[in-house]
């Protein structure tokens, strides 16, 4: 829930426990659900016997959550659907499956992230086994320049897969570079080139 409360949620909690509107909230362009996973972490709860013990179980729990959510909110069922994850919330197996299925995938990493460094992230992205692997790996890195003409990082992309190295950011890109992450995710939502 760090993302909801301190990064890209609709407001930030202040030291006096008041809230302040977040001008870089990702829900400005989309309806957003912040979901802790697996069951039993953060605000995610359920019977102890339902706690997930592996990626397959986590995926199944999320699938059933979304089915129930859309049943209660059918007016949202026909909207575009995006899945984002931070840190260990995103894994390379789903990214590879999505790439081969034609689903757009954006993976980004802060260049000052000491937990999951950008070099390691770029390396596993380049090892993804998908039909565009060779062309993605041969694609040149180019600057990610924001609307304010800031050189915010480097992008490597081919077809539906993009990897962005975000400058001057650690592990929590939306916290460290809120304006950059806001522009990045909105370009992704709008299917614009980086």
Key structural traits:
globular, 194 residues, 4-stranded mixed sheet, Rossmann fold, Ser_caboxypep_ser_AS, 33% helix, alpha+beta, carboxypeptidase, two-stranded antiparallel sheet
Topology at a glance:
Elements: H1 2-7, E1 11-13, E2 19-21, H2 55-72, H3 92-100, E3 105-110, H4 118-126, H5 133-138, E4 142-145, E5 151-158, E6 161-166, H6 173-176, H7 178-189
Parallel strand pairs: 3-6
Antiparallel strand pairs: 1-2, 4-5, 5-6
In the CATH hierarchy, what is the superfamily?
Answer: Alpha/Beta hydrolase fold, catalytic domain
Order of neighbouring strands in the sheet with most strands:
3-6-5-4
| Main sheet: strands, sense, barrel | 4 strands, mixed
Radius of gyration: 17 Å
Order of secondary-structure elements: HEEHHEHHEEEHH
Helix/strand-derived category reads: alpha+beta
- What helical percentage do the residues reach? 25-40%
Structure, explained:
Helices cover 33% and strands 15% of the residues. The protein has seven helices and six strands, in the order αββααβααβββαα. It has a four-stranded mixed sheet. Strands 1-2 form a two-stranded antiparallel ribbon. Strand 4 (142-145) and strand 5 form a beta hairpin. The two termini are 27 Å apart.
Summarize it:
This protein has helices at 2-7, 55-72, 92-100, 118-126, 133-138, 173-176, 178-189; strands spanning 11-13, 19-21, 105-110, 142-145, 151-158, 161-166. The protein is of the alpha+beta class.
